[in-house]
Structure formats: C-alpha cells, structure tokens
From TrEMBL:
Lineage summary: Bacteria, Bacillati, Bacillota, Bacilli, Bacillales
Annotated ranges, domain SHSP: 31-144
Name of this protein: HSP20 family protein
InterPro entries: A-crystallin/Hsp20_dom (IPR002068), HSP20-like_chaperone (IPR008978), Small_HSP (IPR031107)
Family the UniProt entry places it in: Belongs to the small heat shock protein (HSP20) family.
C-alpha cells in the first residue's frame, strides 16, 4: 500500500463499494460484523487532551464509568433498551443498546489533576490536563 493510512479517502471507498454491490450492502454487512461501539474522537490542545465518546441514550451516572490506567482510558457502561417492542420485532437495528466497553490508548501523558467529564446530547466529553514535555532541567555543578 503506497498511501499512508491517514491519506486514504475512506468515504470514497464506501461509495465505490456501494455502487458495485448495491444500496443494501452496508446494512447486510452490519448484521455479520460486530459493531464497534462507542465511536470516539480524540484531539489535543497545548494544555489538554480531549476525548469525545458518542453514547446516546444514557440516563444517569449509573449507566457509565470511566477508568484510567497509565495511558489507557476505558469507558464502560450500559445503554438501556428504550423501546416497547422487543429487539426481535425490530425491522432495522443499527443503534447499540446493552453493555459496552471501549479502550483508547492516549497519545499524551496527563497530570494527576482531576479528570473532567460531562455528558450532553449523547456525547461524553472527557478532558485531561497534559504534562508539559518541554522542560528545562537545571544542572548542578559540584566542586571537586
């Protein structure tokens, strides 16, 4: 493969596959392959790392838990099933409900300061203060 992973136009590939295999290809494939849930975005500023986790349908802090172990962030929880009809009666089922766990390796080091997390409109935003890597280290000379 000559292109770097980041340079691949995945949206274009998706449209080409759909053109070749038909409109229902992704829906049919969705029933075969396990779903990757929840979706995560991660970005950094100069001072903090921000992780945004897409988890619609949560009702309280009892539905979700965040764990940090070294530079591994784990988000675990349970999205309650919200419909009157049973799952077997759904004609199309793409939304995730039930237990989930997602682990992300953080590409930065963070401080021991409290982690901030808020949930709004189906998005969990986690903010961690970054450790400044650029440090000037004083050297102490000793006389012989």
């Amino acid at each position: 493969m000559s292109k770097k992973y980041e340079e691949i136009d995945w949206g274009s590939i998706q449209h080409k596959v759909e053109d070749m295999l038909g409109n229902h290809f992704w829906s049919d494939l969705n029933h075969i392959l396990p779903k990757r849930f929840p979706n995560v975005d991660l970005y950094e500023t100069d001072k903090e790392g921000i992780i945004v986790v897409e988890v619609p349908g949560l009702h309280s802090t009892n539905d979700i838990q965040i764990k940090l172990d070294a530079n591994i962030l784990t988000v675990e929880g349970n999205v309650p099933y919200a419909y009157e009809a049973s799952k077997q009666k759904l004609k199309l089922n793409e939304r995730h409900t039930g237990i989930f766990s997602r682990t992300v390796k953080l590409p930065f080091h963070y401080t021991d300061e409290p982690v901030r997390a808020k949930y709004k409109n189906g998005l969990l935003e986690i903010r961690l203060n970054k450790i400044e890597n650029d440090q000037t280290i004083a050297i102490q000379f000793e006389d012989d």
